[in-house]
Design brief:
The complex is a heterotrimer.
Chain A: E1 2-9, E2 19-26, E3 31-35, H1 42-49, E4 57-62, E5 65-66, H2 72-77, E6 79-83, H3 94-98, H4 100-104, H5 109-122, H6 127-130, H7 140-152, E7 158-162, H8 170-187, E8 190-195, H9 198-204, E9 207-212, E10 215-220, H10 222-227, H11 232-238, H12 242-249, H13 252-255, E11 257-258, H14 272-277, E12 288-290, H15 295-305, E13 309-314, E14 317-323, H16 324-335
Parallel strand pairs in A: 3-8, 3-9, 6-7, 7-8, 12-13
Antiparallel strand pairs in A: 1-2, 1-4, 4-5, 9-10, 11-14, 13-14
Helix pairs in contact in A: 5-7
Chain B: H1 3-43, H2 49-62, H3 67-72, H4 75-78, H5 82-106, H6 110-118, H7 123-153, H8 166-175, H9 178-206
Helix pairs in contact in B: 1-5, 1-7, 1-9, 2-5, 5-7, 6-7, 7-9, 8-9
Chain C: H1 2-39, H2 44-56, H3 59-67, H4 76-101, H5 104-112, H6 117-147, H7 160-168, H8 172-200, H9 207-217
Helix pairs in contact in C: 1-4, 1-6, 2-4, 3-4, 4-6, 5-6, 6-8, 7-8
Classes of the chains: A alpha/beta, B mainly alpha, C mainly alpha.
Chain lengths: 340, 212, 218
């Protein structure tokens, strides 16, 4: 979908290239997160994709088409763009802000009205309430949502997001991230996302590109990178708790042993009758969790209740068992290079 | 245009009038500073702030009064002479100084003042050690604006018997001699530059280097 | 007295038409200049320096010099030219400052969404710079109205003449009448421009407007 090919950018009078020989591909419908310390060139890469910055060397292809040959203004209208400072137009109402690109594209008034309604509902704002408000009358979180809605207005297949949730407080940021992932499940946009926050990168990314001093130092799926950082730099960026981060990514259902495959020994801690009776009866209702929860949550229950295994439930029924050993062997297996 | 006449205007006619001009402007500017600065300080104190806003509005409306009328305003009462001219120029140069004093002092971030107070400085110390040093650049730029405007407007003092370079320029207008007008303007330009330089020197003396 | 009031009407009308002519020409000339130097930054320093220089020349000299130029001479043409030059500094400076004051992230957002340079100028920069540009226009009009009085010395028959005669006759009433009439004219023009301004400026860009908008939306 998006292909960067030996991309370089050298700003005039700069000591070293801002971006150097960077190549990677992003698949349709994926979120690719660029992460790295400030000044590593991640924002420069983003801005080269919508040609706010022209590369010094190298090529960018969107769906096999080299963007160097396109009209930058028309190109940008097909790419959603969200920045940390949001950049809502203070002199325009919420409606006019969202309607901007559709208007540039000469949509009919009715189509624009409908689209704005749909988008406001999608981002969880009441159209009745915010329609005629000016940006100055909104909270930071609301402005950030409008910024996303504005970028989505003309339904562009690609979105560029530069620290889109960086300016709001942690609680609202968490909220916006969850909400955005929910929206993305339906939209399946191809998204380039820039952040300096590794936690956000791990949470949002289908793939993560770690950059340092203009170079791409590692590119891959979050779990792979967390399990096998390719260099000391990457390990440092990931932090002391990278295994814990990894445990947050994997759902318990992927590691559990299904109930029908449990041998007597494995379900040792539990009584058969307990398991058959459903989740409320397992160890007085404390030692179970749902299939969709991350491994970290399973670990939490085990540690708190001093157990070495937990029951995994779907709705009211126990469907599997997850043991401490399952988790540790999974991790060591991953670190040796094996896959799930 | 004759070079001879230009030289005559510059060398023979301008000298004494240039000195008059300097006297007019420095006296007017000094008085204006002595009046406008304390007023600006007063009007930025918490107790007088609302009064300050009203005074500002009044001064701004005063801008609509044409300079020609300001210059002439004391003439019918005091007759021709130096005194009505200087008094009029004082009125004229008050506004930029007062406005910038208020803007400068008002522009000091409240958290800086709060921090100073929090460390135990009293109101007097906060003013002398925090507010004033931080606002000197803005105040000085007001004084400079005022100086340049006053140097120009003092040309009109010749109309009310105050003398100054206006005498040379009006002579040029009456005789239709552009040489006199140009010579007069050149001398006024030099006077304006002299004031600007002197005030810049004063500013360097008053403003700590890292704030410039 | 009747004779006098005739004259006052004539002077006022002359004054008004002079101010309007100057304002029209100055806007047509200096607003584009301000826009150009905000785009072509390298000319901004020189242009502003020129404006400042012209502004510092005593208006009397400017009038006087143009008066002696052939084809300009005594009267309106010299007066208009001098006043238009005088208006350069406040207008160009405010247009430039206004455009530069627009939050660059807002401009970047617009560019990133695919607005052309012209669209960015018309739809973002100008509307957001309006409050500052308009302040410049209002200051200029008040300034020009006041300085136009001095043009009486090069033969303009406007309200300045009342003051001029007041000075030669040492007549306080005439001076004050002239001062008041000119001030009223200046304040009136300023008030009218204020009305226009409120129609032109988006409520989103001013604090008052934000409050007003709130009332409307509830």
């Amino acid at each position: 979908m998006i292909k960067l090919e030996r991309l370089s950018k050298i700003f005039p009078e700069a000591e070293r290239p801002a971006v150097e020989e960077l190549s990677l591909e992003v698949d349709q419908g994926d979120i690719c997160v660029f992460v790295g310390p400030s000044g590593c060139g991640k924002t420069t890469v983003l801005k080269m994709i919508n040609r706010l910055i022209e590369p010094t060397a190298g090529n960018i292809f969107i769906e096999e088409e080299n963007i160097a040959g396109t009209d930058p203004v028309l190109l940008r209208r097909k790419i959603g763009y969200v920045i940390q400072q949001i950049g809502l137009f203070p002199h325009r109402t919420v409606f006019e802000n969202i309607a901007l690109v559709p208007r540039l594209l000469h949509w009919s008034h009715q189509a624009i009205e409908e689209r704005v309604q749909v988008l406001l509902n999608l981002i969880g704002l009441d159209p009745q309430e915010v329609y005629y408000k000016y940006p100055g009358q909104l909270s930071g979180g609301e402005m950030q949502r409008i910024g996303v809605a504005r970028a989505l207005a003309a339904d562009p297949p690609i979105m560029l997001m530069d620290e889109p949730f960086g300016a709001v407080d942690p609680i609202i940021r968490h909220h916006l991230q969850e909400e955005f992932l929910r929206i993305q499940q339906e939209m399946k946009k191809t998204i380039i996302f820039v952040t300096h926050d590794i936690n956000e990168a791990v949470k949002m990314g289908d793939r993560i590109a770690i950059m340092n001093q203009g170079r791409l130092v590692q590119y891959g799926e979050p779990a792979d990178i967390l399990a096998r950082p390719g260099s000391r730099f990457v390990a440092e960026i990931l932090g002391d708790d990278r295994t814990m981060k990894l445990l947050e990514l994997v759902r318990v259902e992927t590691l559990m042993t299904p109930l029908d495959k449990c041998s007597e020994k494995q379900s040792g801690g539990f009584q058969d009758a307990e398991l058959q009776a459903g989740r409320e009866s397992v160890q007085n209702g404390y030692s179970w969790l749902e299939t969709q929860k991350p491994l970290k949550a399973a670990l939490e229950i085990m540690m708190r209740n001093n157990l070495d295994q937990v029951a995994v439930c779907r709705e009211d029924n126990v469907v599997g068992i997850l043991g401490w050993k399952d988790i540790t062997s999974y991790i060591s297996n991953l670190e040796r290079g094996g896959r799930l | 245009m004759s070079l001879e006449r230009l030289l005559e205007a510059l060398l023979v006619r301008s000298g004494p009038h240039a000195l008059e001009h300097l006297r007019l402007v420095s006296l007017a500017l000094g008085c204006a500073l002595a009046i406008a600065f304390p007023l600006g300080v007063l009007f930025t104190r918490e107790r007088f702030r609302s009064l300050g806003l009203k005074a500002m509005a009044l001064l701004n409306t005063g801008q609509a009064i044409p300079p020609l009328a300001v210059i002439a305003i004391f003439l019918p009462f005091w007759g021709l002479g130096f005194r009505p001219a200087v008094t009029a120029l004082v009125l004229y140069s008050l506004l930029p100084i007062a406005r910038n004093t208020m803007a400068g002092l008002g522009g000091v971030p409240s958290e800086v003042k709060e921090a100073a107070r929090g460390m135990g400085l009293n109101g007097w110390d906060v003013f002398w050690q925090v507010e004033l040093p931080l606002s000197v650049p803005v105040i000085m730029s007001g004084v400079k604006t005022s100086a340049v405007l006053t140097v120009g407007t003092a040309t009109l003092a010749a109309l009310v018997g105050g003398g100054g370079m206006g005498r040379v320029i009006f002579a040029g207008i009456d005789m239709f001699w552009p040489e006199f007008i140009i010579a007069g303007t050149m001398v006024i330009g030099v006077i304006a530059i002299v004031f600007d330089r002197l005030l810049s020197l004063l500013e360097i003396f008053l403003v700590p280097s890292h704030l410039r | 007295m009747l004779n006098n009031s005739h004259r006052i009407v004539e002077y006022s009308l002359n004054h008004l038409t002079l101010v309007l002519t100057v304002t029209g020409i100055a806007l047509a000339l200096w607003i584009p200049t301000g826009l150009l130097i905000s785009r072509y930054e390298r000319f901004s320093g020189l242009t502003m320096a020129l404006g400042n220089l012209l502004f510092c020349i005593p208006s009397l000299s400017l009038f006087g010099i143009f008066m002696t130029v052939p084809h300009l001479g005594l009267g309106r043409r010299s007066a208009v030219l001098a006043l238009v030059l005088y208006a350069m500094m406040p207008l160009v400076r405010n247009v430039y400052r206004g455009i530069k004051s627009v939050d660059r992230h807002v401009v970047e957002a617009g560019r990133g969404m695919g607005m052309s340079n012209l669209e960015i100028l018309w739809q973002i920069q100008l509307p957001l710079a309006w409050p500052i540009i308009f302040a410049g226009i209002r200051v200029t009009v008040v300034l020009v109205t006041g300085i136009a009085t001095i043009a009486t010395y090069i033969g303009e028959r406007n309200l300045g003449r009342l003051i001029q005669h007041g000075i030669t006759r040492s007549n306080a009433e005439m001076i004050i009448a002239g001062a008041i009439l000119v001030s009223i004219l200046a304040l009136l023009l300023d008030y009218l421009l204020g009305r226009v301004e409120r129609r032109l400026i988006s409520p989103g860009t001013t604090q008052v407007g934000v409050r007003k908008g709130q009332e409307e939306s509830f």
